[in-house]
Amino acid sequence: MTVRFTPSPADFPDSPLAQALRQPLLLGLFLPIQNGGWSPSTLPRTTDWSFDYNKALTLKAEALGFDLAFGLAQWIGKDGYGGALKYREQTIDPFVTVAALSSLTSRILLISTIHVLYGPWHPLHLAKFSATLDHVSGGRFGINMVTGYAPREPRMFGTTQIEHDERYARADEFVGIVERLWSSNENVTIDGRYWKLEEAFVSPRPKYGRPVLVNATGSAAGFDYAARHSDLVFITSPAGAEIEAALAALPAHVANLKARARAAGREIRALINPMIVCRPTEKEARAYHAAIIAHADTEAVQGFMAHHAAGDSQAWKNHKGEHRVLGGNIQIIGSPEQVAEKIIRLKQTGIDGIQVAFFDFQPDLDFFGEAVLPLLKQAGLRL
Known about the structure:
The chain has 383 residues and is an alpha/beta fold. The chain is 41% helix and 15% strand.
């Protein structure tokens, strides 16, 4: 099958994505749509998986000028990752959540993670559903297409895990079909290796060529897929969560990703997920962090790490168990000035945006908006 690519929404100057990309540093919020958020710690907090809580966070982020909000997808059995928290047992679906948020917001981009290779997904389903959400949101909807790395997840759908690079080959065909459906003025017939369509058609047409396309990866196969298809790529630190090690490793990692995109004739942006612990002083931030760690739900941490160890993800190889209590891809701990300084340095590595998360989301997001955002604006990272 010949893959035909549609224009990126970034190619339309008035699209929500193009407007967001005018920012020197993209700013996103990683929504806690699962209980415990990113931190298997029992320290009391407001963080909650419910739709109403995440709606309030999204509206606050939009009011603060954030460019996007994002929800992960996971398939976990009873008790989640275990422990006293039953970490992440309770979770709402990101696709449905984003659909609901699209009619409650006006500017912010809304990105949903979807495991396109699990269960009943067909390219025609996703093409139609996402075209509809593109219409409802005015071009603010995006899809983080993931292939799934954990062997127990596909078993929930009655299938077995597909080999790592083969998953990306299937995803490549999947998204190629979806892009053709979005762009075609006529019925589409495709006899692909993995999917077939006969006289298929999708309306309404996406407003700016297609929805925003995203993927999260750290492997060579994932980078090649991103180079061909994605507008935004969520990357992980190849050196683990410790910020100084990440800052040293990221320039070559990001350069590799962007070189692959340029070789494909495209430009993509790299985003990373910092877990931010910020207080008025470094001493207070360190005390807050120490309290989070002191309340670690050890059984939940072990369950989470075992889940990752059983999979074949190549993005988290150097992430250690002791960092999972707080969570996040990288961790930034300190005063507002120290947090802003680390974000400035992340930008200097070639990172185009950050997708922030917090331990106690509501008050921590408020403090980030009050104390850190003005510093980022002073530094020229936010307009």
